[in-house]
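S1.2 Input.
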Amino acid sequence: MQGLPPKVSDLIQQINIETLYEIKEHITLGLTQTAEYLQLPPWEEYRESLLEAAHVTYKAVLVDAQLIYVTLRPLFILLSWFMGHFARLMSFLLKDAAIRSQISVKRVIVFQHSLPRFWILVEASIIAACIAAYLLRRLIKRRRYVERLRAWYDTKRRAAQRKYDAALDKVSRISTTLAMCLPHILYGVGAFVVKWLLSDVFVYIASDVPLLECITVFEPTFHTVVAVQRFQHLCNVHRKLYANDPLVVEDDSPPCEDNERRGVDNYEPMMTKIQLKKEEKKSNAHLQKLLRYWVIFGLVISFGKLLIMLPLVCRLVLKIEDNVIRQLLLVMFVWLRYLPLPSSKQMGKTFGKHARLYSTNTIDIVYCNLVQPFLLPLANVTEGRKQTRGMIELFLAQLETFLSVCVFMKALRAERKEQIVHVVTEGLALLPACTTLLMPSMFTAYGCVYVGGFVSTANSAKCDDAIVKSDKKAAFISDDDPKLLQLRMLRVRWLRYWCVYVNVLFLLARAGSILAWIPLSTHATLVLLVWLQLPAFGGAPLLYDILVTEMSGFGIIEPDESFDAEKTLMMRVLNHMSTPGFEEENNDDVGHEVEIEDAESLHSSRSNKNGIPIEERAVMESSEERKTPTTLESAAITN
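S1.3 Output.
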């Protein structure tokens, strides 16, 4: 106790052991009273309660398990019964399939033994030809013969173009007008010489061979589909490039030259902004050429139909033979699409200051000098005269105001408003044709020509003219201008429409003899054309997607990432034929005959018991099998 103050040391000395025991007793008494007040049970009572709770929980689990077993026992019994019968059914089907395959193999062997040697050699040659064609295709793809042939053709074509340009340059030194007209004069003389020397061959090619349809419909459709897909791919690359997407790498590697032929997916997206501008310029020029071709084609077909339907002119036109008309069309479209003209680089050297008046494309010459001056006024006529146009504009303004009020009151969406205004605006141009639905078929045919030919060609020409005017202002506006992009998408829409329209027109022409006997077929054709042309109905995009899917399925174009083989027409037919309902419908009629034939073939090696012929015994056995209930039927009767 050293170091402590005197008072503290005295206090500690006074505390003794008795005081400590008293404190302990007071604490124990307080705890006991607290436990009694709170009614805390002792540990033995806790232990007994815990053991009893565990025992009760164990019994509850057993009762629940027994309840689940009793409840699900019928389901397990039914499932076991079903699986047993399913296994028996599958074993029966497998045995039946094995027996049928054995019978089929035997029949094939017997049929092959019964064939003469000549037909066996024919079969062997066909199989060998198929195998050789497959191996040849693999060899061509491995050695890249197609690419080599294309490269050789491009080289020869460039060399011939250079010689041709040099010859025209020499002629232009004498007369520029003669140089401009010389390619067309040479083509006309060549066509006349071919017709004079090879008259029968020329008539056969123009009349009996579908070369005209391939040149005018199928090949332009293929090029249009590829060009539209390429344009869509370039739009995606443009969006990613200007959005600083990491997919696009700024490098100086030249783009692939064979992209248009190989499709969209193989088109290399790695390009700079300058290369993208060049590719977009080429794509827009190609789309413009295709749209102008379709306008010329639609106008020629429309005028041909109109001349046939006119009462007085029809007599003169029908005097001309169909072979002559096809020959003239073949010569015209070959001249329109394949006539070689001077290249764009040589055009300025050859024609000098007259180069602006000359084009390197026959389609542009015909379109700018003959078609466009006719169609642009026609597009204004379809919109109505000045008074009628004022009434129409007033009606559209009132309609747009009413729809804007509906949008403001949230009774209509803004997208739906624009769609309604667009449908009404374009539907007014088709209103004269729609009135012919209430008339006889003779007048409805004029409505079909008006909707399918003149309205679509006029709108396409108007779209092309608007794009040309916007391209002239390209130095003052950006390529991302919304109006210019909207016009280009409108051009793509019309290209899709023409792809669908010409193929529908081709099918309708082939089915004309059948449609002539169907009532109101002309009215249905007019409704179909209106459905194709109005974008609100989505007819042309729907059929265009089907056309692209079928072309991708047949390998005509390279499929893109969204291609699904199950959506093709062939796969749908095969899936429909492989459904159980279709098989049962086809097998119901021949099931009895197959059973008799299988019984006959299976029992043909057995002895003829009791003097009964094999055929009669097979029929008796098959009838007994039909009288005997199956396993499923017996189980159903038992239940």
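S1.4 Remarks. Confidence is low (pLDDT under 50) at residues 245-269, 384-388, 582-639.
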